[in-house]
Amino acid sequence: MAFLQTEVISHSRKICSLYKKAARTLQCWTPDRLSFRYEATILRDRFEQNRNLVDSVKLQQVVKDSELELFEKQHYQPIKFPYSPGGVAFGRNLESPDWVLDYWTEDEKARFPEYFAKREQRKKEYITYWESKFGKAEVPAHH
User: Fold this and answer.
1) In 3-state terms, what secondary structure has residue 39?
2) Model confidence at 2: pLDDT above 80
3) Which CA distances in Å does 52 have to 37, 44, 56?
4) Is 65 part of any domain?
């Protein structure tokens, strides 16, 4: 549910995000780098014209109109970076969880002695930290 807003977003961050989305949309529609740079300069000028607005009502209206314009001019097939959600390589490389290393054999661990010594030390430190913060874990009674 990544689409749900869970934090307050500042006005400046919202404007920066809007500018970036507009620039990416512009990049989708322009055929080459030179025309994109020209159009991006015009886009930046449009944002700079409203930079010093102080009236919050007018400012909110400009943002609302800009978001509507961005929605109306969105590309039918936007550029997606390979490793971003929706990209061709998204989720291709799976990260192994740390507990997998607990199942390595002693021969496998012997190839990386310093790493596994440091890992065991850090595991002990983490258990000590956990017990100092939350107390010892209770062992569930078996029926």
Assistant:
1) helix
2) no
3) 24, 14, 11
4) yes
* Alpha-carbon separation of residue 25 from 20, 91, 105 (angstroms): 9, 24, 51
Instruction: Give me the sign of the Cα torsion angle 7, 13, 15, 21.
Output: negative
SS3 (DSSP) at 32: coil
Q: What is the pLDDT of residue 40?
A: 96
Q: How do residues 39-62 score in pLDDT, each as one tens digit?
A: 999 999 999 998 888 888 999 999
Name which of 62, 43, 66 is nearest 53 in CA terms: 62
Is there a contact between 90 and 84 (Cβ–Cβ < 8 Å)? yes
Does 63 lie in the same domain as 20?
Answer: yes
Q: In which domain, by residue range, is 43 found?
A: 11-72
3-state secondary structure 85-115: CCCCCCCCCCCCCHHHHHHCCHHHHHCCHHH
User: For residues 97 and 22, what is the distance between their CA atoms, to the nearest angstrom?
Assistant: 38
Q: How many structural domains comprise the chain?
A: 2
Same domain, 63 and 110: no
Whole-angstrom distance, CA of residue 27 vs CA of residue 25: 5
In a domain, 28, yes or no: yes
